[in-house]
Amino acid sequence: MIVGGNWIVGHYENDYFDLHSGSDVKLKQLLAAVVPWLSSTQGFSRAIAQLLVHRLTPLCIDVTETGEISPDEVDWFPREIYRFLNENREMKRLRKKQGNFFERYSVEDMYTPEGVLGIPVDEGDEADPLHMVDAMKDILKNVYSETHGEDVPVWKEIEHMVTSEQHVVENAENQVNFQRKIIPLDSLNLAMEDLRQKRTRNAAGKKKQQLIVCASLVDKVPNLGGLARTAEIFAADRLVIPDMALAKMDNFKSLSVGAGDWIEMEEVRQENLLSWLLAQKAKGYFVFGLEQTSSSVSLSEMVFPDRPTVLLLGKEKEGIPVEYLQAVDQCVEIPQLGIIRSLNVHVSGAIAIWEHTKQRRLQKL
Predict the structure, then answer these.
(1) How many CA atoms lie within 13 A of 47 on its CB side?
(2) How far is residue 96's CA from residue 94's CA, in Å, rounded to a whole number?
(3) Phi, psi (5° rounding) for residue 187?
(4) How far apart are CA 73 and CA 66, in angstroms?
(5) Which of 89, 87, 62 shows the shortest CA–CA distance to 76?
(6) pLDDT digit string (tens) for 177-236?
């Protein structure tokens, strides 16, 4: 198909049609041979066939006729195909793209010894032309480097420092170049300190609260999106959600107003929640849950201890299941003055986050 394209719409177009001018039978035979390729399963061959059919059809039949198809007409089928190829916007775009390809592609250059031997080879001296996927990968890497030049991970910077320095050692007989792995301790310490500082501050440069908002029991995306927004606004350390895939959903991104890009998130599924809570307690975290129980303390009377804290939120309707209450240091409830005895989990979480924030700010005064 590529060779045919070069003959009919490429470098040899004029020579080909000069050779076959006046030979309607030859052109019709060629058109008949190309038409079946319109249904090829290979997209590239199908695209070339569309280009050739569009070029050959006007040379074989009158494509200017209009009106309804008559019973005795024999050329209606190629005429309708041509009309579609000629008028459809996508076909025009594809035809232009393929035409540009054949304008650049030269059979004479590719099928000479210089052209064949000019193809890159691999380590085994086998032909190894650049694959389109590899080219796209390199392009994307370059674009990413240009747009994220300042976002190189610290570990990558350290790796570069470890392996990049070249040293020359002289001895009595000769001079030898070799690479020695050296960790510049001053640079390493500065890099690690910078990493620690970044982990204790949010994207706005404000110091993070030692507060983890745990929403593993929340399964409605709008509530999770709202919690992400609230947690980011009040500089929570991170938000725990049941599935990281939820953060990629459009309604999460919309309701969080992009907060998911600025706050650290962690996935803890419900079946792993109890062990995760116990692990946080072992690290010294104080765990308080928003739940109405017989031993609950009013949020207005709650005094948060001066230690890292986990806020555990319950399910939208059932609250915190009893099996998780064993890992909770204190249940807290929000004072309510109306008839309805429950708040939306996002609203409850926002109120609790603000109360925790307010107390922490007062402690600094």
Answers:
(1) 17
(2) 5
(3) -65, -40
(4) 12
(5) 62
(6) 444 444 444 444 555 555 555 567 776 778 889 999 999 999 999 999 999 999 999 999
At 153, phi and psi to the nearest 5? -60, 150
Torsion angles phi and psi, residue 9, rounded to 5: -130, 5
Q: Are 344 and 301 in contact (CB under 8 A)?
A: no
Nearest to 352 by CA among 298, 305, 308: 298
Which position has the token pair 């979480």? 349
Question: Which alpha helices (H) appear in the chain, and where do they start and end?
Answer: 2-8, 13-19, 24-34, 43-60, 76-87, 89-104, 107-110, 113-117, 132-147, 154-164, 185-199, 221-233, 250-256, 273-282, 322-325, 345-364
Q: Which long-range contacts (CB under 8 A, 24 or more apart) does 254-257 make?
A: 254/225, 255/221, 255/222, 255/225, 255/226, 255/229, 256/224, 256/225, 256/226, 256/228, 256/229, 256/232, 257/229
CA distance 53 to 74: 17
Rg (CA), the chain: 35
pLDDT in tens, 121-161: 554 455 555 565 666 677 677 666 666 655 555 555 555 55
